[in-house]
Design goal:
The protein is of the alpha/beta class. It is built from 14 helices and 14 strands. The chain has a nine-stranded mixed beta sheet with strand order 5-4-6-7-3-8-9-10-11, with helices on both faces. The protein has a three-stranded antiparallel beta sheet with strand order 12-14-13. The chain has a two-stranded antiparallel ribbon with strand order 1-2. Strand 1 and strand 2 form a beta hairpin. The longest helix has 18 residues.
């Protein structure tokens, strides 16, 4: 299509109409060979004609040329409908591609156009960190410890776990964000354009791209947590996870937008797993990300947190950062938490810090696995019965259930269900039947 536009533009003035007719025939042949959808040909030819003042011809004469080209496509419509598109490889000569300089949104940590993971146990400040990143990009501010500044840009923020007006907005205010530059996605419409549904990375990335293009100058997209936007995928299968993440990564690369995705860390590990292998879900998450960082509690200080690098394919190894969470008054009666970084880097090893932090938590007698699962079951079943497969999906996303284990085979889940008195019922018979979990005494609206 680019060649056709160029051929018409470069043709001598008195030969442009002939070049246009040749372009029309070329594009119609491309449709016949299944290189282009038929529906766009007439529009593209009209655009070329308009760009050259219709070559001095009347609109009717130009339409006749376009109609003649499109008509050729319909010579054998049945054969075209039955024709299967030919499989092919998509490749480019290296000599035809221009090298590009890597641009950093956060120097050394968050590259433009790439996916970055931010993992860690719950309650340590991952979401406050994303609010800090969004604020820094929105106001073109400085990064901690003299790591440079960033060019001001727009931010798209997606959060499935926190309230927008009572949590996200106050956090952004506490971090000093330019609120006009932060766009919060709360939902998507259903396929028919009506109603609401949860945004899905499987089906709605085109809507995200459309929004980013419309806004313009978007530099950062926050996805918190990414497991909530997998569109029904549990995130534990490598192939399926790659198929979900690939459109997001392609969009980020095309539009040169950094994507920071929040996830959890798997529990346990017993010191035998590296921090990189502890990121929840399929290894495809870590493989797709160009960099990964973890938030870890300081083993020596309950109030101190580390931000440590687990992976960085595009830059040199980053030193760690230390921060604390403070409360800030953002309006007359609204408090919100905010990250406060220390002025010096730290040299903590991520694997050693993670092992030490978990060992300390165990010695302090913090909630056991059973208590974590009981709290999880109470939360997920508090609104009514839930299908077992959905409970398993969310348990894996919360790093409470191993990738290859069913709920009924997990002793900690069996013990938690018994302690809570969780009831199991079966709906239907045969292959289409399903098992439902519910808590006793939960009243449901009709």
């Amino acid at each position: 299509m680019r060649d056709c536009k160029r051929d018409v533009a470069l043709a001598p003035h008195d030969s442009r109409l002939a070049a246009f007719e040749a372009a029309a025939n070329t594009l119609s042949a491309a449709v016949t060979d299944r290189w282009l959808p038929k529906a766009i040909i007439a529009d593209r030819l009209q655009e070329i004609a308009n760009a050259h003042g219709a070559f001095g011809k009347s609109p009717e004469e130009i339409q006749q040329v376009i109609s003649g080209a499109v008509a050729k496509i319909d010579v054998t419509p049945i054969a075209l409908q039955a024709k299967t598109p030919k499989r092919r490889l998509i490749a480019h000569r290296a000599s035809e591609l221009e090298p590009e300089k890597l641009v950093w949104v956060w120097p050394g940590r968050v590259p433009e156009g790439k996916l970055v993971l931010l993992g860690g146990p719950p309650g340590l400040g991952k979401s406050q960190l994303t609010a800090f990143m969004a604020a820094t990009v929105s106001n073109g501010g400085h990064w901690p410890c003299g790591e440079g500044s960033t060019r001001q840009g727009e931010v798209i923020f997606m959060s499935a776990e926190d309230g927008v007006q009572d949590t996200i907005i106050p956090r952004l205010m506490a971090a000093g964000a330019v609120l006009e530059r932060v766009h919060i996605v709360s939902a998507a419409t259903k396929p028919d354009g009506t109603g609401r549904k949860t945004f899905s990375l499987k089906t709605d990335v085109d809507l995200l791209e459309e929004m980013a293009k419309k806004i313009g100058s978007v530099r950062l997209i926050i996805v918190d947590p990414i497991s909530a936007y997998m569109g029904g995928s549990d995130g534990n299968g490598n192939v399926e996870t790659r198929e979900v993440l690939e459109p997001l990564a392609d969009m980020a690369n095309r539009l040169r937008i950094a994507v920071v995705a929040v996830t959890h860390l798997n529990k346990g590990g017993g010191g035998h797993q590296s921090a990189l292998n502890r990121f929840a879900g399929s290894i495809a998450f870590v493989a797709a990300a160009r960099a990964a960082f973890a938030v870890i509690e300081d083993p020596e200080d309950d109030e101190r947190r580390f931000l440590l690098q687990a992976k960085n394919n595009l830059g040199k190894k980053c030193k760690g950062l230390a921060f604390r969470l403070e409360q800030r008054l953002v309006s007359d009666d609204i408090l919100s938490s905010n990250v406060m970084f220390e002025g010096e880097h730290v040299n903590e090893s991520i694997d050693e810090a993670l092992t030490a932090s978990e060992s300390r938590s165990f010695k302090k007698g913090e909630p056991s696995g059973k208590e974590d699962v009981m709290r999880f079951l109470r939360d997920i079943l508090s609104s009514g019965p839930v299908e077992v497969l959905e409970v398993e999906r969310q348990a894996r996303a919360a790093a409470l259930l191993e990738d290859d284990r069913r709920l009924s085979k997990s002793k900690v889940f069996r013990d938690a269900r018994e302690a809570l008195g969780v009831q199991t019922t079966r709906e239907g018979f045969g292959p289409g039947s399903k098992f439902i979990l519910s808590l006793p005494g939960i009243s449901l609206a009709p």
